[in-house]
Design brief:
The chain is of the alpha/beta class. It has 10 helices and 9 strands. It is globular.
Amino acid sequence: MTAGLLDASRGPLHPLGEATLTAALGVAWADPAARHAPGRAARAHLDTARAVLAGAVGVSPDELSVHSSAEEALAVGLDGLLHARRRTGTRVVAGATERSVLLLRAGDAEPVPVDRHGRVDVDAWERAVAAPGVAAAVLQTANGEVGTRQPVDHLAAAARAAGVPLLLDATASLGREPLPGVGDVVVADASSFGGPPLGMLGVRTGTRWSLPGPRREAEHGRALAAPWVPLVLAAAEAWRQTERSAEDDAREARTLVARVREAAAGVRDVEVLGDATDALPHVVTFSVLLADGEALVDELAARGLAVASGSACTSSVLRPSHVLAAMGVLTHGNVRVVLPLASVAVDREASVERLCRELPEAVRAVRTRMGTEDL
């Protein structure tokens, strides 16, 4: 495990998840669709793991499919809603801070605006889902870049009243706080709770959902191939372990995030972003005026601290953050901290304290190199 790890948007495997992965290589390596004995064994292990992960997502095992990434699960989930409702319309209602893979599928539809903290405008959302030609709505439980929670129950109720199916994106929150019991389609990421980066897609029974083209062979007709069973077993074990300690971990993480927010706010011309309290317990982003985000990441890395910059909602760390742009704040000099679970980073408290000590000098060093320290 990387010392000083404060960028766990895709964190290390839980130790018992890693041990399960290693053990599964000898017993669950076969194709679970095969009819021979190793295949039947792999199928039995996959069914067991699926039941565990379905419980995590809040669906039944026959409603859950496992995919190679969260991005794939999000794309498949939304594509199924759009195809099934193609006669109703093509518009997708999405907040401006949703993940890029969903905003790209929303096409030319204008995203619903958000406030300075990244929270969706409730009135604008209600108008958007009630408009004609809406096929689906997508909503994150909370933003993975600034941590702000969305008013999920209220927005889900508005979509339901308008007869619009909702895709709930829980990829940043599952394992860190309780999952809301809403959404016709629910997507999560096993890496959020110490598992491998597998996407989990739950389509609730009764939802109008279908994919275009010939039926796919695996995962209830949603995937081209079955997942590799050892990875699914590792994800299931990581969930078992994380679920037991989630409440204590979140309480400790919230205290550490408050410490980072306080330290960052104490540096000249630094703005701490997102809601200070109504937010994920393990995420904080701050924007540094007169400094480059990537230079700050490099400077902190030289001091033994792994943080991030750019957008957590796109695969390219070099792309300016559409989340911060939608919030109306600085998009380039930003630093994002995503605390790992305590189970995979026993030194996370020490890493946070080191970040708080090093941050003022790191910012000063970057500004000095850029010639902006005295501006």
